[in-house]
Amino acid sequence: MAAPPPLELRRRWLCQSVASLAACWALPALAQSNSEAALEARAPALPSVGSRLRVPDIERLDGQWFRAPETAPLLVYWWSSTCPFCAQQSPAMQALWERQAAQGLHMIALSIDPKPDQAQAYLKKRGYTFPAAWASPNWRKQFPKPKGLPITLLLDRRQQVLVAEKGQLFPEDVEAIGKLALEDPVRGKG
Q: Is residue 150, in this structure, part of any structural domain at all?
């Protein structure tokens, strides 16, 4: 059996491990521009379940206009091309969109990238087709992004918050939100 490494080597390894872990936690903050970091510092908390939200009209990245449905559920997904957690969640969002768009699911994915062309390039490279828009800092004055990323909100047919989640969701969580989106609380299944 080999002798354990000297105490000084173990301390150095521990310090390097802690520094590496701290750097990993800091990556999302480093990926943000100064203005984005300032917006994040002033961002509101997640909306409470049951509160009403109205998503303002916004031009999508494909040039079409998005208007929030007045009588249908809406999935709102805040993301960024530099967010590693969004990169993990976005494939599940795309799969949900492909499966349930024809069944009445409405969705808008709101990019907080510094420029819209960064979001467009990211979506094109990965083959994402879900409806996406660039949420400019000016537009966000009307509809502020809650603190954190990714952010997933589900609004019901009355524009009340059914789900408000901060952080990466697993595919089964996204699927459960999709099922909830298609349920009509008044009449049963939509």
A: yes
The CATH number of the domain where 142 resides is what? 3.40.30.10
pTM equals 0.77
Strand partners, 132: 109
CA 131, CA 36: separation in Å to the nearest integer?
Answer: 22
Q: What is the mean pLDDT of residues 136-163?
A: 94
Ramachandran angles phi, psi of 4, nearest 5°: -65, 150
Total Cβ atoms within 10 A of residue 142: 12
In a domain, 54, yes or no: yes
- Where are the strands (E) in 84-178, listed by range? 106-111, 132-134, 151-155, 161-166
pLDDT, tens only, 25-56? 444 444 445 566 777 788 788 999 999 999 99
Count of domains for the chain: 1
Would residue 98 count as lying in a domain? yes
Query: Facing residues of 107 across strands?
Result: 75
